[in-house]
Design brief:
By secondary structure, the protein is an alpha+beta fold. It folds into two domains: about 1-100, BirA Bifunctional Protein, domain 2 (2-Layer Sandwich), CATH 3.30.930; about 115-200, 2-Layer Sandwich (Alpha-Beta Plaits), CATH 3.30.70. About 25% of the residues lie in helices and about 35% in strands. The longest helix is centred in the last third of the chain and has 17 residues, at about 180-195. It is globular and about 55 Å long. The two termini are about 25 Å apart. The relative contact order is 0.15.
Length: about 200
């Protein structure tokens, strides 16, 4: 669920989160016009500000879920902010298709992971998934270290920009990392963000 201030379009921010999730899972999902009578998943969404999510399998279009802004009655019942959006997935279909995707299975590490957060300032028209794609293969740049990224927050500024906060989970496979080694890794990550048009704040 994603909530925004009154008058702002929460649908597109929820869509950004969904696109990021599907990219991580290796799924190609299309968003199509919402038709209430054809949706087997939910009627809690506002049809004019919602969409069906579909995937293709063996030449057939399969409905994976629904995404959109919630109806006023749902917002009131759940005490949600006025502009709130989210998405609902059919987990059985999702899991069946993940099995056929190219999702990488990580090895288990006996060394402790560490987490570090950064906030990146970018132009408001840049998509959430686009920013995350910058770090998609970040682990390949380090030896025997896995780096997992996850979203924390998006904040729209008044100057036509937005701040995207990202968490990096750093897992070593050879030894426990010391403070200096962690700082060097984060410095390279920040340099990569700056090189792609972001500002570290």
């Amino acid at each position: 669920v994603y909530a925004k201030n009154k008058g702002e379009n929460a649908f597109y921010e929820a869509k950004n989160y969904a696109e990021f999730l599907f990219k991580k899972l290796g799924l190609n999902v299309e968003f199509v016009k919402f038709e209430t009578e054809k949706s087997p998943l939910s009627t809690e969404f506002e049809p004019k500000r919602s969409a069906l999510m579909r995937i293709s399998k063996n030449g057939k279009k399969i409905i994976l879920g629904v995404i959109g802004e919630f109806r006023k009655s749902v917002q009131k019942a759940l005490k949600l902010p006025e502009s709130t959006a989210g998405f609902e997935l059919n987990l059985q279909i999702l899991l069946e298709n993940i099995e056929n995707s190219n999702v990488k299975i990580r090895d288990f590490s006996k060394f402790q992971s560490v987490e570090r957060d950064i906030s990146i300032n970018v132009e408001e028209n840049r998509k959430f998934a686009e920013i995350f794609s910058i770090f998609e293969n970040i682990s390949d740049e380090f030896s025997k270290i896995d780096i997992e990224t996850s979203p924390i927050d998006i904040f729209n500024n008044c100057d036509g920009s937005k701040n995207i906060s990202i968490r990096f989970k750093i897992t070593p496979f050879e030894k426990t990392l010391n403070g200096e080694e962690i700082r060097e890794i984060m410095q390279k990550i920040e340099e990569k963000a700056i090189k792609n048009g972001g500002k570290i704040i």
